[in-house]
Amino acid sequence: MTDDMEKTAIGVMDADEATQVVSEPQAEPTLRQAQDATQYAANVDCPVCHTPNPPSETYCIDCGFMLSSEPVEVGEMPETPQVGSLVTADGTREFALKPGENTVGRQDADVLLAHNTVSRKHATVTVEDGKVYVEDVGSTNGTTVGGRKLEPGGKVELADGAEVVFGSQALLLKTGVGGQGSGAGEQEPSTDEHGSTRMEEGEGEAPAEPEAVDSEQCTVDSGQGTAEGELDTAESELPGEETSDEDSGPRPPAPDSRPVIGRLVSTDGSLSFDLREGVLTVGRREGNDIVVPDPYCSGSHAELKVEGGEFTITDLGSTNGTLVNGVRLEPNSPRVLQPGDELTIGHTVFKIEAPE
Amino acid sequence: MAFDDKTQMTPPDDPNKARVGGFDPNATQMGGPSTGSGLSGADINRTAMPSSMRAITLGCVPENSYALATQATREHVLIKISGSGTAMGSRMPLNICLVLDRSGSMEGPPMDYMKRACGYVVDLLEPSDVLSIVAFTDQAELVMPARRVVNKQLVKEHINRLDVGNTTDLYGGIAMGASQVAAVASQGYVNRALLFTDGEPTAGNKDFNSIVGQVVEQKSRGITFTALGFGGEYNEELLAAIAKRSGGNYYYITRPELIPEIFRRELETMMMTVARNIKMRVQMSRWVQVRQIYNKLPAFGHRSAEVTLSDLERGEVQTAMVELELGARPGGKYRVAKIEVTCDDSVTGRTETVAGDVVVEFTTDPALIASGFNPEVQRELEVAEASRNLERTVMGMRTQMVSPDQAVRELEKTQALLVQQGKTLQAQDIQRAIDQIKQGGAAEKTLIGINLDREKAQ
Q1: Is there a contact between A139 and A146 (Cβ–Cβ < 8 Å)?
Q2: Among partner residues A4, A214, A243, which is closest to B351 by beta-carbon distance?
Q3: Crossing angle for the helix pair B375-398 and B404-420, nearest 10 degrees?
Q4: Taking CB atoms and an 8 Å cutoff, what residues of chain B touch A107?
């Protein structure tokens, strides 16, 4: 049932997956040709986000633009200051912060967390002079930063990557300029030390009690919605910054000054990728941070998170799966990789190499 | 009647149909007697049905068909899921477990009427339906394992042997009831446990979150709980949560002589089911986030948010209100989200998906935006606001933060709005609650069951 739905979803939103090879290996060459034919023959580039679309699509599979129409000239896109965002550890939700005060709560808030451990008015996150502060405004279940509970009325500055927990809901601060222009998963090239206040994977295990007054509305966190796919940070990019770009694909990443923490190397030696702090997308399609030219690899296959010297792979519901040491991962369930682990994406086998 | 009619509904020029009729060996099975094969065997029918032959239709209505280009904005989208209005084919067979409280407080008329109510259920069922019976007191016990309702007298004897015990192991009852429902292949059946209780859980696992959590887990397996609360002592917050989180119904039964009538009503509701196991998925385009889905806890995935919905009755309309955060973009028409609803469809007998696009035109013309508001969505937003106020009133009453006079005033406001929006059934329920309060009684058990997201056929 869920599988069916997953397939349908892919079929529509991600139409070139339809050509994904799932049959016997010996059929591979023909299928690959067929796939190339459908994939490259008559793709229509979206005039807004430049994503190549199969000719059958009415709306761009990525940004939803109606492909039969022309984007309206609106002059300059206003410069929206990108001051950062709060993201869930699993990356499925992102709350862009605006300069000044951002309210956090269960109702009518800027950062809207519909969970029974979050008060209606829970906290405020203030962005000023490029710094981000959080303040609890008298919530029932409290707010913690880096494991320390905030005193009501006390403001605490959040560092990039810091974890802040509202009730039981954990979010990570991601600062920096959005729309860096590169592919999905590109994080701000930043040289300042990440991780000083960074928490390990917050899964919201805070032992918060449900609010007594209104626990009925959403009594139990069913556990759904956690541990889902990783963040596609491209979603926070501004479209306007790309419209002037003649290039059909996303631009190459800006020169990266972050230190290389490890390498992802295919066991046949044909592929090698530097790994830096951040979230890297893995897929067959151009525009991924790690492009795997394997017909058994889905267009958007997996995400590899590099954080605090740890590598975490998450399958994004790929057709042919992601395997660690021969064991197939559940889609959207992150798995930490150890150096030497064998990572199979489609039919390509990789190893993680970490220097130390 | 189910099967032959349905195959006839397929247009004769449909190539799939020709193939089924021509050389698919399954076709002979389809032409055979429909008894017993019912809907559970219907997946042998691979014929593509036109969407008009589906049990549900989907409507996606944005609050405004225009939005301001180059600026971030928020927009509500009203999702309407309607059950087909006419009976097509036979009803879905039922797979029911009666989960019955036989604690000490049930002694006397409540126990007698409960047995009579169960007898009605047995009378109304057909041999294609499956029934099991679980009773709970100090612990749960299996009165009758899941079986087809062929020998009705035998089933009734099981029911009549029930007698009162002591405490209330609600958790154990739910677990055993769910396992009985799960014992039957779920595909094609309306799978539901009817939980009847008159008190707070006093034995076994009594933790609110554990009990509701277990129900949520069963829901993910396609099992729905309907909660029937009897008398003044049960925990309405718990029962309402059980019903709500599992997509079932909640009933408040005030007097023992009403028990059989309420059981009958629930059974008729189940027999009207045209779609079950309904899941709605909001697939977001780039620069779009789901802020919230009113009264639901979405499971967020990669650019998606998914919620489960209640089983849909014939002619019923369920609504979901989604709030989207739309990022800045150049002008033009965009599909900001795609809505996909999957369900077990009683018309096709298979799992079906219907999809709809939420399309918004981004423009710089403020006049277009001012003209683009959809009055229906605005009305529904008012109802949603009323729903929130109602919830706040109920919680205020439970915690004695709201006086009876204040509650009546609040409820009258909500009621007026519901009348105005044509939600007459719910307005009547609120009237009943107002009367209860004015007579010095408690109205929480009535109010907590009012569901403004569903509009049943009248």
Answers
A1: no
A2: A4
A3: 160
A4: 388
Query: Given CB atoms, is A238 within the 8 Å cutoff of chain B?
Result: yes
List the pLDDT tens digit at each of the 458 positions of chain B.
Answer: 333 333 333 333 333 333 332 333 333 333 333 333 333 333 333 344 455 578 899 999 999 999 988 888 999 999 999 998 776 667 889 999 999 999 988 999 999 999 999 999 999 999 999 999 999 999 999 999 999 998 999 999 999 999 998 988 989 999 999 999 988 866 778 999 999 998 888 888 888 888 888 888 888 888 899 999 998 888 888 888 888 888 888 898 988 999 999 999 999 989 988 998 899 999 999 999 999 999 888 999 989 999 988 889 888 999 999 999 998 888 999 999 999 999 988 888 888 999 999 999 999 888 999 999 999 999 889 888 888 888 888 888 877 788 888 889 989 988 998 888 888 888 888 998 899 888 887 788 888 878 777 776 55
Cα(B296)–Cα(B454) distance, rounded to whole angstroms? 13
Do A216 and B327 count as a contact with CB atoms less than 8 A apart? Answer: no
**B399/chain A closest Cα distance in angstroms:** 7
Please say whether the beta carbons of B195 and B173 come within 8 A.
Answer: yes
Asked if residue A258 lies in contact with residue A160, where contact means CB atoms within 8 angstroms, the answer is no
Provide the phi-psi class of A100: left if phi over 0, else alpha when psi is between -120 and 50, else beta: left
B115/B272 Cα distance (integer angstroms): 24
The CB density around residue A155, as the number of other CB atoms within 10 Å, is: 12
Q: Which residues pair with A132 in a beta bridge?
A: A127, A158
Q: How far is B63 from chain A (nearest CA, A)?
A: 17
Q: Check residue A40 and give left, alpha or beta (phi > 0: left; psi -120 to 50: alpha).
A: alpha
The CB density around residue B442, as the number of other CB atoms within 10 Å, is 15
Query: In the structure, how many helices (H) and strands (E) does chain A have?
Result: 3, 24
Contact state of B286 with A70 under an 8 Å Cβ cutoff: no
Cβ pair B286:A74 closer than 8 A: no
- Beta strand A131-136 with A123-128 is antiparallel
Q: Do B327 and A238 touch (CB under 8 A)?
A: yes
Kind and range of the H or E element at B89?
A: none
Q: Which tokens belong to B197?
A: 């209780």
Q: Could you give the CA distance from residue A159 to residue A161 in angstroms, rounded to a whole number? A: 6
Question: Structure tokens of B50?
Answer: 């036109």
User: Would an 8 Å CB–CB cutoff place A94 in contact with chain B?
Assistant: yes
Q: Are strands B250-253 and B140-148 parallel, antiparallel or unpaired?
A: unpaired
CA distance between the termini of chain A: 45
A79 in contact with B, Cβ within 8 Å: no
Chain B residues in contact with A212 by the CB 8 A cut-off are 399
Q: Token match 């944005």: residue?
A: B62
Judged by CB atoms closer than 8 Å, whether chains meet at A212 and B277 is answered as: no
CA distances from A173 to A97, A102, A205, A332 (A): 10, 13, 18, 21
- Angle made by CA atoms A318, A320, A324, in degrees to the nearest 5: 90
Beta strands in A169-270 (DSSP E): 169-174, 260-266
Candidates A127, A55, A118, A121; CA nearest to A84 is: A127
SS3 B93: coil
Alpha-carbon gap, residue B183 to B321, rounded angstroms: 35
Nearest to A59 among B277, B297, B335 (CB): B335
Dihedral sign of CA atoms A64, A67, A69, A70 in order: positive
Tokens of A71: 């984007």
Token pair 């709030």: residue: B323
Task: Give every CB contact of residue A224 below 8 A, 6+ residues apart in sequence.
Answer: B297, B298, B299, B306
C-beta atoms of B299 and A224 within 8 A: yes
Tokens of A70: 């022309």
How distant is the Cα of B58 from the closest Cα of chain A, in angstroms? 16
